[in-house]
Amino acid sequence: MLHDAAPTAPDTADVHPPSAELFDEPSRWRAEAARALGLRGEALLAGVSPGASCPSVLHSLARAILAHSIANGRDRLDVVVDLGAGAGGISEWFRRHTGAAVVAVEPAPGAREAAASLFPALTVRKGTAEASGLPDAIADAVLLSGVVSLIDDLDAVLAEAARVARPDGAIAIGDLFSSRRATIRSSRNVFRSVESLTEHVATFGWEVVEVGIGSPPPDASWALAAAAVDRWIRRHHCDHPAFDVWSADQAHLTRHVEQGDLIAACLVARRSSGWPG
Ligand SMILES: C[S@@+](CC[C@H](N)C(=O)[O-])C[C@H]1O[C@@H](n2cnc3c(N)ncnc32)[C@H](O)[C@@H]1O
Description:
The chain is an alpha/beta fold. Helices cover about 40% and strands about 20% of the residues. The chain has helices at about 20-35, 40-50, 55-70, 90-100, 110-120, 155-165, 195-200, 220-235, 245-260; strands spanning about 80-85, 100-105, 125, 140-145, 165-180, 185, 190, 205-215, 260-270. The strands form 2 sheets. It has a 7-stranded mixed beta sheet. The protein has a two-stranded antiparallel ribbon with strand order 6-7. Helix 1 runs parallel beside helix 5 and helix 2 runs antiparallel to helix 4. The longest helix is centred in the C-terminal third of the chain and has 18 residues, at about 220-235. It is globular.
């Protein structure tokens, strides 16, 4: 397990990605709602971190990462680094389902507070996907869940993931993607096609070994918990200055899903055989 006192790369984490603002106050609200509603177990994870196609996509990612690890002669995951961990529900899911120690890296203070208070077994750290501040080669798997669709230029993210992953480690990505070949840029999102992201990771020496495709809404039980939290937030925080931005972002994503623009997908990549190139 990585403790906060462990030596790390220089702290370049005082960078605030613009899209992190959107998740700051709402992550606090999600944690508050989850407590008020008495959510427990998987409903708690779903309520605070309702990702696209969850939890099916998480099972696919965990299976593929473990299979990759076993193929490399290691029958368990020691460390998973979750870049852009938000309120920590997905990090906690991976901790519970894989047995790995999970380091949740997140730039938004409200999201870090939510993750640290709700899921004390996580190691929660300030940082970004471009500059996590973590040591080299500590992760059996680097997870990016719902994050690449918020980042315009992925080069620094892919370089950071490659630095933090062990030589035999994997990168696991779950997100919303364009349902067409063309990238969709809309508001703060960049929805790439699975093909274009596959080509992009290849330029950093990674080979995609597993792809899963699903429909964006979470599975029914996760959707129920997420909807209860959303309703609670609408009742209790509609006067907050951050509420309209949060609400508009939700409407924006719903519109793209209803138009058929988006799919949920997950990718697992390992170093290509020629690495280091
Ligand atoms: C859609 S949420 C997903 C959170 C979590 N990974 C999940 O799946 O529930 C996106 C998260 O990425 C964070 N984020 C935005 N830009 C980031 C960046 N450049 N580096 C790391 N995290 C970022 C946001 O603060 C937010 O917590």
